[in-house]
Amino acid sequence: MLEDQQLHDVLATVAEPDAAVAELIARANAGGGPDNITCIVADLFDGPGPGDDAPVVVGSAATISF
Question: What is the pTM of this model?
Fold first, then answer.
């Protein structure tokens, strides 16, 4: 529902991944997106040192209880 340039604009200007997801979904809906729009934004960084393999989960996935 979004052109490549729109994706680039949002990802280049919105610093927080959760805010970028919200903006991308809003734009997809405004562009006539159908039901069930999915968006994942990952902020890749050098994380904890070797041996610390605990996953980092944020956003709505972090609220799910297993």
Answer: 0.65
